[in-house]
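Budget justification, computational time. The allocation requested in the original proposal was used primarily to generate structure tokens for proteins on the priority list. As evidence of use, we reproduce two of the resulting records. The first is shown immediately below.
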Amino acid sequence: MLDEAAIAVVTGAASNIVAYLAQGRADALRTRLSAIFRSGTEQQQSHALRTLDEDAAALAQRTATQADVSARWTGFLTAFLAACPDARADIEALSSATPTNTRTINIGSQHNHGSGTFIGGDNHGGVTVTGGAD
């Protein structure tokens, strides 16, 4: 049985896995999971990456909830940490690596002077962007 601190680490890591998947960043997560499961067997490594692909698809198709995926990874990581305690540092790294939103929006203003052809014609005033990234 794992101690409370280890359970908290595993729970945080599982939550971050869901956060990565919710942002469509399974590829970024693949590298982290490879690092975690490198101390396991080849079958454990393969299972982890296959589970990642299945969960990414399930979330995208809305056939699984984020809570379901988080619970699945909590159980999976708990069992793995119990079998391979040396993976704790890598799991802790995933637990503390909350993904950031990588989308950017550039907001600017354009004012054209003089004669000539301007892309989009003459524009006067600012540009307002609504919606977009969180």
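The second record produced under the same allocation is shown here.
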Amino acid sequence: MAEQRRPGASPPGFDPPEFQTESNPVSPRDGGGNVLSAPPRPRVPAGAGPAQGGPARPPAQQGAPEQRRPAGPSPFLERRPASPEQRRVAQAPTEQLSPVDRRPAPPVSSMEVTPLPGERRSAPAVPSIDMASVPMERRTAPPVPSMELTPVPAERRSAAPAGSAGPERRTGAGAGTGMRRALAPSEGGGGDAGAWRFWPAQPRSLADTGLTATMVEELILKAIFYAGEMRGMDIANRLKLPTSIIDDIIEGLRRQKYIDIRGGGGSGVGKSTMIYQLTTFATDTLRQILDRNRYNGPAPIPLQEWVEAVKKQSIRGNRITRHRMEDKFGDLIIRDYIFDGIGPAMNSGRAIFFYGPPGNGKTAICQGMVNCFEGEIFIPHAVLIDDFVVRIFDNILHKPVEEDSGSPSYDRRWIRCRRPLVVVGGELTLEMLDLVYSPEVKYYEAPFQMKATNGMLLIDDFGRQKVAPKDLLNRWIVPLESDVDMLTLHTGKKVQVPFDVFSAFSTNLDPSDLVDDAFLRRVRYKLEVQPPDEELFHQIFDVMCQKRGVPYDSEMVQYLIDAHYKPVNRRFAACQPRDLLDQMIDMARYQGVEPQLTEDLVDSAVRSYFVRFDKGR
């Protein structure tokens, strides 16, 4: 930094830049005594005379304007080019310069490189180093080749999901749609088919959502219309999209005069706390939007993204063992032959057909089977099919899991749930197996098998539906064979969706009257649920007494069998101990006594429970 001097003092030895000239310059050819025309002279040490071969520097002429330097450092000092004297000194041989002048010259602004003697152009030789003589702690790794890694934003440096064994990898079709697959260990039956599972990444931009700006604008306008007015953060929570994406869309709607700010919504600064309401300019546009569809909820997922997620969360190809199944059925007593029948069926993920007399736990077995499929799945709130919204998530059928405090973020348009169990009975019709379109709200409700995706679907009381069994079986033949289901839009267009469902059919009717060979060929596993014998009947009674808090008395149970079963050849059923015990408890409370197994209560319960209606009366 240059030394600051008072105004009017000229620093010694200061040569003005070449582009600074006097107001009336003299050309060098005129031979005048102007100092700018004098040839440069080398600098000499203090006390030395003028350099040989060069004229002495003339004193300043009287009357000439004095060259003054402004106070403080000049802004031109950092960028001025080298003076002719500096360039001459830089080119002079080293032996002709004094030790003071051997300092390197300042960099020249021009692109010309000063020629150096040949012996000075080569770099000094690097001495060879014997690595064996260098201590291990001082050995440094060779420099990494120029492969610069793209810096990862701080918000994306989150840890992998709980139990993950490696970093996230974006592969397949989901790489460009905001989907990712997180490495996870095998969890029960849900993850043994492969080490990868589906984990939806949080969208960073509108392109990551797979939706258009128009679709998001319509969802925002409908959300404000149904609520009257909303804060920015409430809109983002309704649509399950990041506030950064919502804020950009809201700003566009404001420029179009569709919405306006009514005021702040409490503490906080930013667009998320602002309260928005519709303007009169949005009336006609909103009417057209509501005529098309009135869906008001989380933003939908594109169909292709949902299809990829179903494949990664497939219920097929599990590895469920007998040891893992034993504690998944609660207080239900399961025989060995039932374990041996349902275990391979669950590993395959294919359909199974239960048959046998009523009341022996066919439905209860199916409800316990879904607990064997460990691992959690992601279910979307809604799916977008050809600009039509199809709602999939059902808060009755789907059971969300509690979020872990350390779990990474994910796309909130998905719900993290347990594998679902969807049970349909005699109310099932063919129309319920297709997309259900509501003309009032103008969007679709997914059918039962679509809501049971990546889970289990139980057709209970098969053969008692309003539709003929053969027609119902014909509807299931293609999905069971190809794992693909065909759905129909109200426009008549057919849509292909995955059929990744573990189907179970349960009936207490004669199978020969219900199914044919074509159906039996596609349902690979058939299992007859037999009634319990006398020993198993005692075990079930004991379990039910412990569950109801009633002291178990094996003599009273044997009295029940000897007095009310053997004389009339009555068949045992697995549900009878539970039903008879509940009636004994109700009668004991009515009589004001403590519930227990007595002959009077046993006889009263049997008379009320077993009733035979004669057709001749």
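A brief technical remark on that second record: The chain has a mean pLDDT of 75.
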